[in-house]
């Protein structure tokens, strides 16, 4: 079973449990405030915003893969698998990962939108706990750095390569 957010639709999950995977079609938007998704999350050409509500973290039991849309916000989320953000179009706002726990790796590849991972962009909240690698590869973000990376814990390797603008490491 799978929950599908149709093309052009917005689905808001407020402190809701989904006992399946979630798919977001092109032009769709998924907003999860304190939501629990037991499967994986896959979005193509869509906007994804998963945030905590007070002490209720948004959770995804599997991995998160977002491509060709943008931006993605994971703020106070727990992801049971990996996070892959790829081919995000140029947006006025950044991909934002703050105060998250990601059990596996994070891969940010071939985006035109800057990614903020921890640091001052998180407005005083904690950085990201990454259980695997953090890969920032082949991003073309115009004049902005490919990523701003600060105040995170990365269990394995940090790899930044082939980006049009270098990633900025702080803290």
Fraction of residues in H or I helices: under 10%
Strand % is over 45%
Radius of gyration: 15 Å
Oligomer: single chain
Widest beta sheet: strand line-up: 1-4-7-10-13-16-19-22
Chain-averaged pLDDT:
93
The count of helical stretches stands at 0
Low-confidence stretches: none
Please describe the biggest sheet, giving its number of strands, its sense, and whether it closes into a barrel: 8 strands, parallel
Number of strands: 23
Assign an overall shape: globular
Q: Gap between N and C termini, in Å? A: 43 Å
- The arrangement of helices and strands along the chain is EEEEEEEEEEEEEEEEEEEEEEE
**Could you say which structural class the secondary elements and strand pairing correspond to?**
mainly beta
How would you explain this protein's 3D organization?
It is a single chain. By secondary structure, this protein is mainly β. It contains no helices and 23 strands. The chain has strands at residues 2-5, 10-14, 17-18, 21-24, 29-33, 36-37, 41-44, 47-51, 58-60, 64-67, 72-75, 77-79, 83-86, 95-98, 101-102, 106-109, 115-117, 129-130, 134-137, 147-150, 153-154, 158-161, 168-170. The termini are far apart.
Short description:
The chain is an all-beta fold. The chain has no helices and 23 strands. Strands 1-4-7-10-13-16-19-22 form an 8-stranded parallel beta sheet, with no helix packed on it. Strands 2-5-8-11-14-17-20-23 form an 8-stranded parallel beta sheet, with no helix packed on it. A 7-stranded parallel beta sheet has the order 3-6-9-12-15-18-21, with no helix packed on it.
